[in-house]
Amino acid sequence: MKRIEYFLLLGLLSLCITSCDDLFEFHPNQIRLESHERDLTAKSLARLQQQQPGDTLRILVMGDTQRFYDEAVDFVKHANTFENIDFVIHQGDISDFGMTQEHKWVHDIMKDLKWPYLTVVGNHDLLANGSKVYQQMYGPLNYSFTYGHTKFVFVDTNSREYGFNGKVPDISWLTGELYQRENENFSQAIVVSHVPPHDGDFDRNLEEAYHDVLKSSRRVNLSLFGHIHNWQTSTRYNDNIVYHGTTTVKKRGFTYLKVWANGFDIKTIDY
Amino acid sequence: MKPIYTFILALVLTVIVAPPTFAQQEQTDTTAVPPASPFHLKAQFAGGIGFLSVGVGRTLFDEKLETDLFLGYLPQSIGGDRIVTSAIKATYVPIKPVQIKTVNWQPLRVGLQVSYTFGSDYFATEPSDKYPKSYYGFSTALHGSILLGGQVDLTRVDRLKKFAAYYEFGTSMEYLVSYIQNPKYLSPGKIFNLALGVRMRL
């Protein structure tokens, strides 16, 4: 081999080394996060506290990014053309294989949104050591916050991942969240989950209890979900609670949701 | 899940311990210099199978092919989670090494690796009592990777003749599929990672 050829190869080698984002990866399931990639739920909620909620809340709902990064980039571009949005909800299945790197890529894309974004954990996010990844990167699997007149309750409903152990979703936690405590002031609540109660991946023994909690609270008119990779809006339990499913970014759609004191409006957007 | 893995392991061990037929032929014409052993040990940093991994392997077909069996460890303090991994690797050396002063440089090595992550968090095949058939369609314990790299043999360095240092860029099939489907956001720089290692001939 000529001298010039191996200098070329050496040049190529240095190019490879310098172009690698994370030069070394110890394991696809390693949980190595930069400080800006930790506690994202708490950070988004802190940003929300700085905002002044109006009488009408404007929320963009998307989800199931899995390994559809290019479509997620396009979502962010399209979402940023909207105005007066309060926050964005990611319906879960942030990752496909439950690997940290996937979450990092999705956050790298979502951080370009003009508004805070909040996530609910999806079944894919619980694969491998994904539960640990989610909790370190985002935060608790069940959480809630009140914004203006509405309380938002994010709940892990991925029963199949826990072998239908009867503990997921956590019905007693949910009941507590929908009950107005002394220091709380909300007139309604929206429950956000990945798997809807009428899905085969939701614990069949908890479907009725789950819906009953929502209904008996008398504060829930709307529950949002993802998972099915399709649009679906229904009042399937013969009462006024609307279950609204948002399609996946892969199908280039998201929901534009407006919420006011005694009602809401759902618009499906294609991009 | 376990029988599959045992089978793969058995296959590799068979290859490693098989008698090297070509080496015996060499013995007849070069009696003065004992033939280099086809066996080696390796220690590797990173490369998707732990912070540090150790390997044992052998060369085949006039050093054109190398097979290794690795065991890697990632401590929680470094990896955020304690992970034990094993891997089998096959590396092909298509180009003859370049002689540079006291060392020989293998400018191109291409390889395939299958790794297995131990632990109850991971499944080799989807447990049938938990999921309907082909629910996910992938394994969380088994990962295939493609590797591209090179190696510097300290062939004519006194007392270090047995040693070599290698570098290896690798990406898993999951990352590769993601890149193919997302050519705008992902790039080779995002999906390839570097491994460094040393090899000692036995």
Automatic annotation (TrEMBL), chain A:
**Top-rank lineage group of the source organism:** Bacteria
Which GO molecular function annotation, any one, does this entry have? hydrolase activity
Q: Report the residue ranges that make up the Calcineurin-like phosphoesterase domain in this protein.
A: 57-230
- InterPro entries according to UniProt: Calcineurin-like_PHP (IPR004843), Metallo-depent_PP-like (IPR029052), STPP_CPPED1 (IPR051918)
Checking SUPFAM superfamilies in the record gives: Metallo-dependent phosphatases
Mind telling me what this protein is named?
A: Metallophosphoesterase
In which organism is this protein found?
Pontibacter cellulosilyticus
Automatic annotation (TrEMBL), chain B:
Superkingdom field: Bacteria
The keyword Signal belongs to this UniProt entry's keyword annotation = yes
Which positions make up the signal peptide?
A: 1-23
Please provide the record's keywords in A-Z order.
Signal
> What's the source species for this entry?
Pontibacter cellulosilyticus
Q: What is this protein called?
A: Outer membrane protein beta-barrel domain-containing protein
